[in-house]
Amino acid sequence: MFFRILVVCLVLAASYALFEIWRVHAFYSRMHNPESNFTVMNDDGSLTIVDFINYECNVCKDTNKLLLGQARENKDIRLVVRPVPYEGKAIENDVKMVLAAGLQGKFWELHEALIDYKDTPDEKFFKETAALYDIDYNKMLKDSEGMKVMDIMKSNATAAYNLGVTTTPALLVGKSFYASKTILTLPDLLRMIQFEKTGREQEK
To answer: What is the average per-residue pLDDT within 56-83?
Structure first.
């Protein structure tokens, strides 16, 4: 009888452990995989970095430039940009427009134009940028109010909420969460990348 109880307890413990492993894996999978992959750079990279970008935050823009530079130098870095409308009508419009540009295959063009722009983007900015990168402005404007863009925004906002994002810049480097009001430095980023790589090697 005791042996049977022991076996049942071991089976339950093993089942719970497997469930926890699955739950953690599912959580990070949702974080790492956005609603649409047009916001993903180096999709075959083995280390995922997720940036919950706030286009009204200059520190966030500088941090994103650092991430873009590293992703272009190191194809093993899979960079995921998840624009989130943190607050305010203006930033919500920025997010809608950049995601709508993504539906035309022009996400990265408008994204980089936004992070390089020093003033508050207005209609003139979006029209001129659209013309510069051969984006159909009227379609972008219409798509910005469509369900596809709304679904992506909702997915990004939910991911940020579930991760506990309360300030920006906010990053997920593999499974390491970083949030600060100061720009991420290159040495700090490289340390986080090395930490994640070392952890993966130890798990093998």
So the answer is: 93
